[in-house]
Each structure stands twice: as structure tokens, then as C-alpha cells.
């Protein structure tokens, strides 16, 4: 999206957050200056600090937005009654969200694999807490198994869902070297209730 399109479509605060997401995803948070964000967003550095305080505050706002979007995408819906339907729906909603938000995926890869624990980012910890809360909610609803610890279920979900998202370029390269369609190797969560 061009700067002019961003300016027309978003409030200044949302525009700053969107530009920060883009630049952080492409260059990393450490390599992205507040000045670069202000220039691309068409605002002053002072406006960024007014809305977000510091660069760490801006990183937190970007991650808040990312996590809210993912949480909304994978939220349990009352119409998902059958266990198999719930599992397939959660997988598909995450894949759809990822497909619709390539900058989010690029940001996750960078901040979780390349710059983990970078300035202002506690993304992995927050992702883990979000997944644990979702598992606990699904357990309360009788959707997820209670035969093993919730923490083990979180590890499985993170490995299958998040691992697949983070490692997709690597898996595509491997499939290409083997003349295989990477889509046939998509992982999915197994049924979680006994």
C-alpha cells in the first residue's frame, strides 16, 4: 500500500501502527528508526511518541494488534459443536488469517525466530499465555481433552499451528527440492477429546 493510500484509509495512530508493522517485519525492530516510521507514515516523530511513548511502546501496540487479530480469528464459536469441526475450524481460521495478513506472518517470523526477546517484544510469552487460555477455555467447554496437562496441549498447538506458519518458507524449499507439493504436508491438530 502506498503512503497516500495509508494516509487516506487510516487514522494517524492506526497508520503509524501499520507502517511500524511493515517496517519491523521487513527490516526488524532494531534496524527501524522512529524517523523512518514517521517519514513513511507521513507524521512527526513527536506524534508517534504522543501516541505510543517509546519505540518499545510502539512495538507493544503492534503486537497487541497482531494478537487481537489472531485471537479473534481462532476464537471458539458456539456453532462449532462437534470436536472434529472445532479442530478443523480452528486450523482453517488460523490459515485464513495468515493468508490474509502476510505482514503479520513476516513480523512473527522476524520477532520469534530472528530477533527473539528484542526491545519491547514479549511476543512468545504473550502467545503462550493466549494459547493456554484458549486450551483452558476449550477444556471447560468439554472440547479439549483433560487426560493430559494443558501445558502439553499448548506445546502441541504451538508446534503444529505456529510452527507451520513460522517454518513455511523452509518447508516450501524442501518440498521444491523433492518435487512435492508443500500443501500435501500441512499439519493439522488431531482430535483433542477422548
UniProtKB/TrEMBL annotation:
Going by the UniProt record, its keywords in alphabetical order are: DNA-binding
What is the top-level taxon of the source organism?
Bacteria
What is the protein name given in its UniProt record?
A: TetR/AcrR family transcriptional regulator
Pfam families from the xrefs?
TetR_N
Q: Which residues bind DNA?
A: 33-52
User: InterPro entries recorded for this chain?
Assistant: Homeodomain-like_sf (IPR009057), HTH-type_TetR-like_transc_reg (IPR050109), HTH_TetR (IPR001647)
Signal peptide start-end? none
PROSITE patterns to which the protein is assigned, alphabetical: HTH_TETR_2
**Coiled-coil residue spans:** none
Which residue numbers delimit the HTH tetR-type domain?
Answer: 10-70
Which PANTHER family does the record match to this protein? HTH-TYPE TRANSCRIPTIONAL DUAL REGULATOR CECR, HTH-TYPE TRANSCRIPTIONAL REGULATOR RUTR
